[in-house]
Specification:
Largest sheet: 12 strands, antiparallel
Distance between the termini: 63 Å
Number of strands: 20
Helix content: under 10%
Length: 486
């Protein structure tokens, strides 16, 4: 097994630090494993309930939980295998031309324990804390109250904090201060523009690194490598990268959940939920070493109700209960079930990278225009996809050059259409005897055939389609069911 070691001298890079190391002893060995074993997992769980009076109970619980380690089952085998990849330094200039030359070759015979074996190629790090299991701490408190006979109300708070999650980390970013060089960053290291800026090859062989010999590559902490990243968190291997992921990821979740439950009485059962929630993930910003809490793309509020109602007609019911067999046969056994769900729109991500930050390993957000509403037409009843746009293009701008945008992904202030869904079931039970009956029903999804618009296009680089809605949810659907119970 091999891995990038930041403290190893790289002879092929003029003695710069950062080279390929190998497990075990020897000249290029690390003297043991790349990771440190972790044996401190402790997962206590505690729950408590207290009855305040005959109608009120408080429950609370908490616990610590762990997931699988952020590792792949495939070890890193650099030096034992080799699959070179060459990337255009600016996204459009070719790195080689088969008509005028041959594909770049590596001359080393495998296996090779040369610490400079991957110079000019991306390299993978095995973090020392890779064996640290992802950890989640959860806590919850619930108040349950009986409001009336067969009617109860619950209020629940749920929270959690996750740490040591898999995280995509760039260990080799060009320093932020070097953005001052602008378009010179994309020039070859032996160009006139590089010389005029006072930037030269960091080591003699740098100029011959195919696809990795630009000015911005020379300014990286480890110019001998286009990228220095951690491995994969896909345990099980497959086509995923090998090794182990960085374990610096975090997440947090907070939620308030309200529930009303009317147990079956007088033919009616009712269950209602209201949920307010927010979840965040620790995410890389536009600069590789910039971390921020990114709002996850989920609705903030969800309201739902479901009910089952056996109509009060016929034999044994409160209405039309008589001995007329014909009338009982017509009005008895009918039921209606229903479900409705309404939620906030999900946060939208406006993409608007029109510059060059992506070519140097950064990311680039769109830019919002202060004081301008991001919306155009948001009322579904007034929306016409042929003439209306949901988003107002004047509220946003493409971010150009080497500039950062100010509109982060999943912006809480910019949401799509609210979600609405309804379903209804009407049917009847035909009783043959005490043990057998036939249940016949018709299900209707979107029974009123409302139009539910999908979210709009959000790419500023396509001005003709930005803000346009091109799809909608399905219209009314009917399904006929028959079921024999015995």
């Amino acid at each position: 097994m091999s891995s990038f070691v930041p403290t190893f001298v790289n002879p092929g890079a003029g003695g710069l630090l950062g080279a390929l190391g190998f497990e075990g002893s020897g000249t290029d060995g690390v003297g043991g494993n790349f990771t440190k074993p972790w044996h401190k997992g402790f997962g206590p769980r505690l729950g408590i309930a207290y009855q305040i009076d005959s109608k009120t109970v408080i429950r609370s619980s908490g616990g610590i939980y762990y997931a699988e380690a952020n590792e792949s089952s495939n070890p890193i085998s650099n030096g034992y295998t080799n699959t070179p990849t060459y990337t255009s330094p600016d996204g459009y200039t070719q790195v080689y031309n088969l008509a005028t030359g041959t594909f770049p070759q590596t001359s080393a015979v495998l296996p090779s324990l040369n610490p400079s074996f991957l110079n000019g190629q991306s390299i993978v790090v095995t973090p020392a804390n890779a064996d640290r299991l992802p950890q989640t701490i959860t806590w919850t408190t619930t108040i349950q109250r009986q409001l009336a006979h067969n009617l109860s109300f619950d209020a629940t708070y749920i929270g959690s904090k996750s740490t040591h999650l898999a995280f995509s980390t760039n260990y080799n970013p060009m320093p932020l201060a070097d953005l001052q060089y602008g378009n010179t960053l994309l020039q070859p290291i032996n160009s006139t523009a590089a010389a005029a800026a006072g930037i030269f090859s960091p080591f003699p062989a740098f100029v011959n690194q195919t696809g990795a010999n630009t000015v911005y590559q020379a300014l990286k902490p480890y110019p001998q490598y286009p990228a220095v990243t951690a491995g994969s968190s896909n345990f099980g291997g497959g086509t995923a990268p090998s090794g182990a992921a960085d374990s610096s990821g975090q997440g947090k979740y907070n939620s308030l959940q309200l529930k009303v439950n009317k147990r079956f009485s007088n033919g009616l059962t009712l269950l209602g939920f209201y949920t307010w929630s927010k979840s965040f993930t620790w995410t890389q910003g536009q600069f590789p070493n910039w971390r921020y809490w990114n709002l996850d793309a989920n609705p903030a509020e969800v309201l739902s109700f479901s009910w089952v109602y056996q109509l009060p007609f016929g034999k044994g019911k409160s209405l039309l209960n008589n001995t007329n067999k014909v009338l009982n046969a017509v009005v008895s056994g009918w039921f209606v079930n229903g479900f409705v769900k309404y939620n906030d729109g999900v946060p939208l991500t406006i993409t608007g990278a029109g510059g060059s930050l992506g070519t140097i390993g950064y990311s680039q957000w769109a830019t919002s225009v202060p004081g301008v509403s991001p919306y155009s037409v948001t009322n579904p009843r007034n929306f016409n996809p042929a003439t209306s746009k949901y988003l107002n293009a004047a509220a946003f701008a493409l971010t150009t050059g080497f500039n950062f945008g100010n509109l982060q992904p999943s912006a809480a202030s910019i949401r799509g259409f609210s979600g609405k869904s309804e379903s209804l079931t009407a049917g009847r039970r035909f009783k043959f005897n005490e043990r057998m009956n036939l249940e016949f029903s018709v299900d209707a999804i979107n029974p009123f055939n409302f139009v539910r618009w999908s979210n709009p296009a959000t790419n500023l680089a396509s001005p003709s389609t930005f803000g346009v809605v091109t799809a909608a949810a399905i219209g009314r659907e009917l399904q006929i069911n028959a079921k024999i119970n015995f």
